[in-house]
Design goal:
Layout lengths: L13 E2 L6 E2 L2 H26 L9 H6 L8 E9 L16 E9 L8 E7 L10 H7 L5 E6 L19 H16 L10 E11 L1 H11 L10 E5 L18 E6 L7 H4 L3 H4 L3 E6 L21 H13 E2 L2 E2 L31 H20 L3 H18 L3 E2 L1
Parallel strand pairs: 5-6, 5-7, 7-8, 8-9, 9-10
Antiparallel strand pairs: 1-2, 3-4, 4-6, 10-13, 11-12
Helix pairs in contact: 3-9, 4-5, 9-10
Length: 403
C-alpha cells in the first residue's frame, strides 16, 4: 500500500514496498540537506584546523624582522637524475640496480636579477621524504636560496624492499652527484637554473639520518666533498664521531637539537659537539623533540604531550631486523674519527611536556637562515649581524633557545 507523505510526521520517510522508493516530505528533505551541509562545513573547518594549525610568530623585535617573508618569489620543478656510475644495493626483496635513481624537488627564487644564490642540498631523515623540507623551502627560497631535496634510494618511506639505514654511506655520493648535475645546468644557457647558483656558496642540510649524511659529505675523510662550504645537522646522530672526524675541515657547522629528543638523545649526540668540533655552533631548543622537526608533527602529533612517544614505535618497527635493530654501517676507525659508541634510540623513561612542533620548526627556520646568512651573505656587515643575532638576540628573545 502506498503511504502518503502527508500522513507521516515531518521528520519521517516512507518506503514503497513495491518499487523500493523512499518518499520523504519536502520540508524534511530540505531540513536534512541543511543539516548535512552544516555537518560538512563543520568537518571541513575541523580538518583545516587540524591540518593547518596557526603558526606562531616571534615576539622579539630582531627575530620578528628576520622572520618576515621573503620577497624574491619561489618556483619549483621536479628533479629526476640517474647516476650510472654507482649501484643501488640489494635490499630485502629488492634485487638492486646497476645505477642510482635520484628523484626529488628543486626550488629557486623567481627573481633572477638578484642572483646568483647559495645552494642548499637537503637530505631527509629515515623513513621520510623530500616533503620534510617544505617548511625550510617555503621560508628560505623567497629570501634568496636555491634548494634541492632528493628522496634517498633506500632510506625514504617508499624505498624498494623497505627503508633501511644500511645505505647511508652511499648517500653523500648522491649529494655530490646532484651537485654535479645542478652546477652543469647552472652553466647551460637556456636552462631554468642558468646563472642562478653561486658555486662558492653551497651548504649541506639534513634532518636525523639526513643530518648524518650532511656531516659525512662535509667532514668524512674519504667521501667528503670539498665544494660544501657550510653544514647544518638537525638532530643528526654524532655519538660515534670523534674530534678527529671534524678535523678534516674548519668549515662552519651548526647542530640544532631538542633537549627532549628520545630518538637521538641530546646528551649523547648533541651536547658534546662544541668540544668535538670547535668551529661548531650548537643551538639547543629546550623542550624540543626529534619528531617535532618532522613535517607531519605540526598537524597530527601536536595534540600529544610528546611527539616522540607516539613516533618511537613506528621508528623501532622500521629499524627492526629480525630480533635486533639495524645498526649504522660505520666501522670503527680511529684514523677517520669513528668510534664504536652505540646509543640505543627510544629508551627514554619519562616523557616530559614538549615544545609545540609548530614553534620548534619556526625556531629552526630562524636558526638555519641566520646561520647561512652569517656564512653566505655578500656583505661583511650582514654576516656579522647574523652571527650576533644567533649568539645574542635569539637566545634573549626566545628563552627556549640556548647556544
Amino acid at each position: 500500500m502506498q503511504l502518503e507523505s502527508e500522513s507521516l510526521p515531518h521528520y519521517a520517510c516512507a518506503i514503497n514496498q513495491h518499487i523500493q522508493v523512499v518518499v520523504c516530505p519536502t520540508g524534511s528533505m530540505k531540513q536534512s540537506t541543511k543539516i548535512l551541509s552544516a555537518f560538512v562545513v563543520l568537518i571541513t573547518l575541523v580538518l583545516l584546523y587540524v591540518l593547518n594549525p596557526v603558526s606562531p610568530t616571534p615576539t622579539g623585535p630582531q627575530s620578528a624582522i628576520l622572520y618576515r617573508p621573503g620577497v624574491l618569489g619561489s618556483t619549483s620543478e621536479k628533479l629526476s637524475v640517474t647516476d650510472h656510475t654507482r649501484t643501488t644495493m640489494a635490499n630485502g626483496r629488492f634485487d638492486g640496480q646497476p645505477f642510482r635513481e635520484l628523484k626529488g624537488k628543486l626550488s629557486f627564487p623567481e627573481n633572477r636579477e638578484q642572483g646568483p644564490y647559495p645552494l642548499i642540498l637537503y637530505s631527509h631523515g629515515f623513513m621520510s621524504s623530500v616533503g620534510e623540507a617544505n617548511y625550510l623551502r617555503e621560508f628560505l627560497v623567497p629570501k634568496g636560496y636555491v634548494i634541492a631535496a632528493i628522496n634517498s634510494p633506500l632510506s625514504s618511506w617508499r624505498s624498494p624492499g623497505g627503508p633501511t639505514i644500511n645505505d647511508v654511506l652511499n648517500q653523500p655520493g648522491d649529494i655530490s652527484f646532484v651537485m654535479d648535475v645542478l652546477l652543469a645546468r647552472n652553466n647551460t644557457e637556456g636552462d631554468s637554473l642558468y646563472g642562478l647558483i653561486d658555486p662558492d656558496r653551497i651548504a649541506a642540510v639534513g634532518l636525523s639520518l639526513g643530518g648524518l649524511t650532511s656531516q659525512l659529505v662535509a667532514f668524512h675523510r674519504d667521501i667528503r666533498d670539498p665544494r660544501i662550504a657550510a653544514v647544518v645537522s638537525i638532530a643528526g646522530p654524532t655519538a660515534f664521531l670523534t674530534t678527529e672526524f671534524f678535523r678534516t675541515s674548519p668549515m662552519p657547522f651548526m647542530m640544532i637539537a631538542g633537549s627532549e629528543d628520545a630518538i637521538i638523545p641530546y646528551e649523547a649526540h648533541a651536547a658534546p659537539i662544541p668540544i668535538k668540533a670547535p668551529q661548531a655552533m650548537l643551538v639547543t631548543l629546550q623542550g624540543g623533540t626529534h619528531f617535532g622537526f618532522a613535517r607531519f608533527a605540526e598537524s597530527f602529533l601536536r595534540w600529544f604531550r610528546h611527539p616522540d612517544q607516539v613516533a618511537c614505535p613506528i621508528l623501532l618497527g622500521g629499524l627492526q631486523n629480525g630480533d635486533q635493530l639495524q645498526a649504522l654501517p660505520l666501522s670503527p676507525d680511529a684514523a677517520i674519527g669513528i668510534s664504536s659508541e652505540v646509543v640505543t634510540p627510544c629508551t627514554m623513561t619519562e616523557y616530559k611536556r614538549a615544545m609545540r612542533p609548530v614553534k620548534q620548526r619556526m625556531l629552526a627556520q630562524l636558526a638555519v637562515y641566520a646561520f647561512l646568512e652569517s656564512v653566505f651573505a655578500r656583505e661583511s656587515d650582514r654576516r656579522a649581524q647574523m652571527e650576533s643575532f644567533l649568539l645574542l638576540d635569539l637566545p634573549q628573545e626566545e628563552p627556549s633557545v640556548s647556544l
